[in-house]
Amino acid sequence: MSTQQFDVVVIGGGPGGYIAAIRAAQLGFNTACIDEWKNDKGGPAPGGTCTNVGCIPSKALLQSSEHYEHLNHHFAEHGITADNVQIDVAKMLARKDTVVKQNNDGILYLFKKNKVSFFHGRGAFVGAKDGLYEISVNGTPTLAAKHVVVATGSNARALPGTPFDEDKVLSNDGALRIGAAPKKLGVIGAGVIGLEMGSVWRRLGAEVTVLEGMPTFLAAVDEGVAKEAAKVFKKQGLDIQLGVKIGEIKTSKTGVTVAYADAKGEAKTLAVDKLIVSIGRVPNTIGLNVEAVGLKLDERGAIVVDADCKTNLPNVWAVGDVVRGPMLAHKAEEEGVAVAERIAGQHGHVDFDIIPWVIYTSPEIAWVGKTEQQLKAEGRAYKAGQFPFMANGRARALGDTTGFVKMLADAKTDEILGVHIIGPFASELVAECVVAMAFKASSEDIARICHAHPSLSESTKEAALAVDKRTLNF
Ligand code: FAD
Ligand code: NAI
């Protein structure tokens, strides 16, 4: 096969890679994207972890399981009752697969629309000659490129000595494909995946125990929010044990037993039907053949980049989960756009200080900027304002009054430094706060902007008013 030459070749078609490829093509570059993900028929399934076994399928299952929980527990107060409520897990999973496929197909359509050449297979460096990088697809040297963007993502981290079998010991992949709600589900790691997937299967009837190594629950989250979340999740029936030390894990035909020491050091055993291990993810450069060109990795296996996503090699860039920073789809996308623009000589920019985080549990948890404990540690003088959803008319009408909005602002300048939300549609409410922070708004700015009534967003305005101790509805 003859070598095809491109201006930009992107390796990896997840949110970092496919967005970088589209933006590069929009900027007039002859662009190719290589992605190896296969659907169940062996065909291409671009979109990466996010589309195939991450953001999208997890949110599909969270939605289905929330409908089921509402019908079982919350609709009666609206006067809606149903007998014999059933969950057809196979149908729920099939719907999730359809949602995933719509996203895969959408990306293939976008590649066509933007004239990005798509190659299905594994991309690897072969070498570099005359200012061009040679890239193979499935072992065959096929492409040459002036610029290469590596966006090869991450993989689930396994516990040492306990590989994922995706039947009893599950990564995020298996956790999204459990064929029937297990009677007992164990989760190791009370992070984002543990809480989201634990919530899905608890709502569908599993007895869920979460074993967390850290003594603090959601240590990266604002303390007030984490405390409220712990209270609510406990009430929902999630048994979250902190400060544990995991010992031997044994699997049998029927289930899994986990030996562990609890926070007091007492030896305990947890016997479950399925075990999800969600203890973080590792950057993925498997099969990329970085040695061929001398691409530098750090001790965690992440590709070393500077603030502009430049690697140690000229014209080789890396974005998303395979580099430093939070492992979030929108962070990967922003880096992808910025890199394409930098290749074009523009000034692509990612503001790492205002990347929003969302945990899609019920209630949702969302935040942007600094937590109260971070500001205290920095010795920064700040003012805090908090408004409970209990005092918001729309939340009462929704029947979802758990949680609050907390706004933190600089004591002198009043610039917003962080916003922390636990409650209904926190994922949507946080967007206003990100915009405000991007424009360096003060809490007074938000307090003086008209918010629609009745809407949950009035709680953000009221939290801003609370910073100046002048709430109107609380
Ligand atoms: P990936 O999405 O991992 O994509 C990398 C792609 O590169 C893959 O398709 C892979 O097959 C391909 N690839 C790798 N090596 C090669 C090679 N050599 N040749 C060709 N192709 C290759 N983030 C959020 O922001 N919001 C969420 O709600 C959210 N939910 C999540 C839920 C779960 C269960 C998980 C596991 C993750 C979730 N994330 C979420 C994180 C998000 O999925 C990642 O941050 C995001 O996918 C990273 O994008 P990426 O492009 O860097 O890598
Ligand atoms: P995580 O980093 O969110 O949580 C891992 C948890 O496991 C931590 O609380 C950690 O203390 C604990 N842990 C680590 N080792 C342990 C051990 N040996 N024993 C017991 N506990 C241990 O990682 P998670 O949940 O695997 O998710 C990976 C990443 O995927 C997230 O960090 C996030 O970037 C992304 N993600 C984002 C989502 C979102 O944006 N809504 C949803 C799901 C994942």
From TrEMBL:
GO cellular component: cytoplasm
Superkingdom of the source species: Bacteria
MF terms (GO), sorted A to Z: dihydrolipoyl dehydrogenase (NADH) activity; flavin adenine dinucleotide binding
Chemical reaction(s) catalysed: N(6)-[(R)-dihydrolipoyl]-L-lysyl-[protein] + NAD(+) = N(6)-[(R)-lipoyl]-L-lysyl-[protein] + NADH + H(+)
Localization, UniProt: Cytoplasm
The keyword Kinase is annotated on this UniProt entry: no
Cystine pairings recorded for this chain: 50-55
Cofactor info, note text: Binds 1 FAD per subunit.
Keywords: Cytoplasm, FAD, Flavoprotein, NAD, Nucleotide-binding, Oxidoreductase, Redox-active center
Enzyme Commission number: 1.8.1.4
Annotated InterPro entries: Class-I_Pyr_Nuc-Dis_Oxidored, FAD/NAD-bd_sf, FAD/NAD-binding_dom, FAD/NAD-linked_Rdtase_dimer_sf, Lipoamide_DH, Pyr_nuc-diS_OxRdtase, Pyr_nucl-diS_OxRdtase_dimer
Domain FAD/NAD(P)-binding: 6-336
Ranges where the Pyridine nucleotide-disulphide oxidoreductase dimerisation domain occurs: 355-464
Cofactors (names): FAD
More details: The active site is a redox-active disulfide bond.
NCBIfam families, A to Z: lipoamide_DH
Protein name: Dihydrolipoyl dehydrogenase
Organism from which the protein derives: Inhella crocodyli
